[in-house]
Amino acid sequence: MMRKIVREPLLHFLTIGAALFLYFHWSGGGSGPTSDRIVLTAGQIGHLAAGFAKTWQRPPTEVEIKGLIDDWIREEIAVREAMASGLDRDDTIIRRRLRQKLEFLFEEVDAAVPPSDRELQAWLTENADLYRLEPQVSFRQIYLSRERRGSATEDDARTLLARLRAAGPDTPIDHLGHPTLLPREVEMSSLAEVARTFGQEFSRSTEALPVGVWSGPIQSGFGLHLVWVRARVAGSLPDLAQVRLAVERDFTADRRRRQLAAMYERLLAKYRVVIERKAADDDGGKSGANAS
Length: 292
What we know:
With 292 residues, the chain is of the alpha+beta class. It has helices at residues 2-6, 9-26, 42-56, 62-84, 92-111, 117-126, 128-131, 146-149, 153-167, 191-198, 200-208, 244-268; strands at 136-144, 185-190, 214-219, 224-233, 274-275, 290-291. A four-stranded antiparallel β-sheet has the order 2-1-4-3. β3 and β4 (224-233) form a beta hairpin.
């Protein structure tokens, strides 16, 4: 029950409201944009000094503190005069910054409630494809170039395949096929890694090849290949402990999106939104207004 209460969005908003009240009180209530009083509290001066110390790696002198105070007062005057003149209205940068600050305040409250193991496990189960471990394969391969052998390449490949099957798995292959920068021996790698080296067509083909048998020829963007699959590991869904950091990051981001959307839906109920659109059949400048 207590955990359910802690996660209740209404409690979050009450907390946000209390934080705003305390901040307003701490920062000198009654000295807002419409007041002729400018109040700089001891706490604010300490904040200015702390910011200076963080930047310069030493505490400010009395002269520097006076400079910080003077600059803060000028900034406060500038902000009030700008707001009184309406300079804050219809300014895209200011609007975005205010939105960011509101959402950031909401996120701070949300971040105070870490997800439980049950929530993370449920997220992992519902989004298994995001975290599923890819199949892996290790193999040897011999490359045959179509450019060198032309129309005889496939016949040569089948002849070489018969020799390899007769010779067994341990036969040396360094002297077989055509020279290439492609690796002859590939240790256990995901199919995505194989695709990056040999191409998607080759990677898909290796999934169907039997283990412990020379197979082919299979096609790649480079030419033909004879392949001995040493081992294969099927794809699987990892345990939560293996991917906890990624799951917690994704779960938290999704929760933030959902809760922000819910916050805006609740706030929207306080307003009557009117959307004015130009009439579809413009008749010389007349326009209509649609309200929602």
